[in-house]
Amino acid sequence: MFENLQEKLELALKRFRGQATISEENISEAMREIRRALLEADVNLEVAKKFVEEVKQKAIGTEVKGNLLPEQLIVKIVRDELVEIMGKNRSDIIFSSNPPTVIMVAGLQGSGKTTFCAKLAKSLRKKGRQPLLVAGDVYRPAAIEQLQSLGKQANLPVFTHDSKEPVTIAKEAISYSKRFARDVVIIDTAGRLTIDEQMMQEVENIAKAVNPTETLFVCDAMIGQDAVTTARAFHERLNLTGVILTKLDGDTRGGAALSVLEVVGKPIKYVSTGEKLDALEPFHPDRIASRILGMGDILTLVEKAELQFDTQQAEKLEQKIRKNQFTFDDFLDQLATIKKMGSIRDLLGMIPGMDKQLRNVNIDENGFAKVEAIIRSMTKAERQNPKILNGSRRKRIAVGSGTTIQDVNRLLKQFDEMGKMMKNLSRGGKYKMLQNFRFPPGMGN
After folding, report:
1. What pLDDT does residue 149 have?
2. Which is more confident, 99 or 368?
3. Does 221 share its domain with 77?
């Protein structure tokens, strides 16, 4: 996420290293590079010009005091301005005081609109809401089946109707939600490959009929400025309340994220960072700004962990670690938990300073599969007590898992080292563990 922009901003800000003051000359040179970096990241031209001008004015008029270095001051100003253009504060979903809360979701075909509906419903249910998904796209082949499949995966109800009129479907869904106490109705509307009058009129008619509390536009971050232009066109007809950016995990430019609020005038509420139904993050401008500048995002990392880790299980695990009883079965449970949190590269990138270290590291996201295959090829006794794994047993495990004896040996060695580090961690040796961090076998080199 934002890798290219992050790298170019870092190079521009390096100009201030070793400088005693911020001058008209050095700030102008740096701002030219930052402006170029923003435009290459597909940031809107007017937004880029305004950003650079604001940073320049604030930097020149600010005195460098005490032990503060010009480089540190510039980074702070750039970060503050990034937060400013992205919206300052987190913009959450607004709920109606008179249920149900109706959320209408619009967007072009292929933007990830239907998947987002399911992700949002799952996220809201975790917060105690009772969402109902509504299949309002009667045109795209298999759109209804896709939403039903996603609903089944997340154990969420999906409302369908025999009518081919989206307005009728939306109205009937709201009546259904009142009868069955569903306090949030999420309507998946039809999209097109491009904006056309028929589509715009249809979503406009739905909005007039159901008066949604939230009207969210889903746009593909991969298409850069076209995403922002399309969002603005929808806003002119629908009066959007927020924007959702999808496929941000594959977008190394990030221009849409930096341009939406300034151009459309509506906040980004969520970002989608993967295909899984848990791959949805609230949009926090301050945290995204920190990620862009390579400062990490510990708060989001902690929140992801809290969603997945069970307190009682964690306490039991800690006791096992203290008694040196950590087994391969426990290791498998931890791998499953980490996988639910998202991409390994993204998770590590949230740790301050790790982005730079990861740039030239090849992380194989499928490496977990190799580790799991090795462990699952062990007998129950071998998982509980790896010390019994002699040469013949290791050979059998390698053949059974489709790996090599070297892979098995490497995992056993790393498992032993991990056990020692986890024991140190339980005693407070956090820094020692971080210093000795290693990827699991096959995960990176």
Report:
1. 95
2. 99
3. no
For residues 373-378, give the mean pLDDT.
Answer: 92
Which sign, positive or negative, has the C-alpha torsion 66, 69, 74, 75?
negative
Q: Check which CATH number belongs to the domain holding 22 and give it.
A: 1.20.120.140
* 320 and 286 assigned to the same domain: no
Looking at the structure, do residues 106 and 181 belong to the same domain, yes or no?
yes
**pLDDT tens digits for 319-363?**
665 666 678 887 777 777 766 666 655 655 555 555 555 455 555
Structure tokens at 334: 């931890």
- Give the per-residue pLDDT at 223: 75
Bridge pairing between strands 268-272 and 280-282: antiparallel
Average pLDDT of span 145-165: 94
Give yes or no: residues 164 and 231 share one domain: yes
C-alpha to C-alpha distances, 307 to 129, 151, 346, nearest whole angstrom: 16, 20, 17
Q: Are residues 315 and 198 in the same domain?
A: no
Side-chain-side CA neighbours of residue 39 (13 Å):
11
Confidence (pLDDT) at 50: 92
Shortest CA distance to 363 belongs to which of 346, 380, 341? 346
Residue 135 pLDDT > 50: yes
Across the range 235-247, mean pLDDT stands at 89
Residues 168-197: pLDDT tens digits?
999 999 999 999 999 999 999 988 777 778
The model's pTM = 0.68
Indicate if 9 and 38 belong to the same structural domain. Answer: yes
* Domain edge (last residue) among 246, 262, 295: 295
284-298 confidence digits (pLDDT tens): 888 888 777 766 545
Q: How many domains does the chain have?
A: 3
Among 422, 389, 387, 384, residue whose Cα is nearest residue 408 = 389
Positive or negative, the CA dihedral 386, 391, 397, 403 is positive
- End position of a domain, from candidates 86, 118, 135: 86
CB atoms within 10 A of CB 153: 12
CATH classification at residue 408 = 1.10.260.30
Residues 6+ apart with CB under 8 A from 224: 42, 253, 255, 256
On the question of pLDDT at 280 being above 60, the answer is yes
